[in-house]
Write a structure and sequence with these properties.
By secondary structure, the protein is α+β, with helices and mostly antiparallel strands. The chain is rod-shaped, with a radius of gyration of 23 Å. The protein starts with a helix and ends with a strand.
Amino acid sequence: MLKKIMKIVVLFIFLILITGISLNAYITMKITPKDLICHKGKLLMKIDPDQAIYTKAKDVVCEVLDGNLVINNE
């Protein structure tokens, strides 16, 4: 009886550990802004995720430095 309870407890602990590690990896994953583009100093935002239609953001200037997108107010 005790052996059966220990198996259940150990399986439950492993399940919690695996879930925690997976959540931690997912939360700390670096997400890139795929819907933003810097073109000639103007920030363009994607309107529709399925199509390549962009609109210009008002009063915003952007530039790409060392692979990072830097956004500033005008």
